Amino acid sequence: MTAGETLFLRATISTDGHVWIVVCCDPNQGALLANMTSDLSFEPLCVLDPGDHPFVTKKTVVAYEHAKYIPPSLISPLESKGIDRKLDDLTPAILRRVQDGVLQSRHTTPR
Predict the structure, then answer these.
(1) CA dihedral of 72, 63, 106, 47, whole degrees rounded to 10
(2) 95 phi and psi, to 5 degrees?
(3) In which element (H, E) is residue 61 found?
(4) Does domain 6-104 have CATH number 2.30.30.110?
(5) Mean pLDDT for the stretch of residues 75-96
(6) What's the pLDDT tens digit per position in 7-33?
(7) What is the rounded CA–CA span in Å between residue 109 and residue 46?
(8) Helices (H), 3-111
């Protein structure tokens, strides 16, 4: 699992149907995942437009308040059993915008 990957999680982990972004991942510190949503009532810290990612067809935001921290011990099981399917990775520029939003969000705290 690497930062910038996008994926659908298996229904046993998340039934929301959203695309999840690997915001950051370190095997010793864990991973942070955040989902994309077209519900624009969430913090508009990272707004994605069509063309920013192949899955994005209308204005979309990263919902930091639903971010999931994955501890180091669960990264490998998530990779082997928890991912339903992977999508295209984010470009480095879009990933940087997503990561900048994590630092600004009132719903995330440093680990």
Answers:
(1) 120
(2) -60, -40
(3) strand 60-70
(4) yes
(5) 91
(6) 988 765 666 678 999 999 998 999 999
(7) 17
(8) 72-77, 92-104
